[in-house]
Amino acid sequence: MNLVHGGLQLVFYVLAIIAFALEAWALIDATRRPADAFPAANKQTKKLWLIILGVAVFFGLLAVVGQVTTLGIFAIAAFVAAVIYLADVRPAVKEYGSGDGRRMGPYGPW
Fold it and tell me: Where are the membrane-spanning stretches (predicted)?
């Protein structure tokens, strides 16, 4: 019985690490997008997404280093927020460039 319990803990720990990596990727990606791209794509503002994803990374980190059972619902909500950003918001704002100052033409940056 103890072996099964230890195996499940390992599985949940690995899932928490994967979720944290996904949340961190979403936050880093959101910081790289220009602020004007979010309203232009009919999405919430960049500031709001940075707050949401920052909180998601915080709870994801707590899930990795702390007790997953006490933060379970918050860790799940953090993962869902990151998935919503990556699946819905990121493709919409990606069309507007990465915000690095270069202008995009029909065939690439110029």
Answer: 6-28, 48-65, 71-87
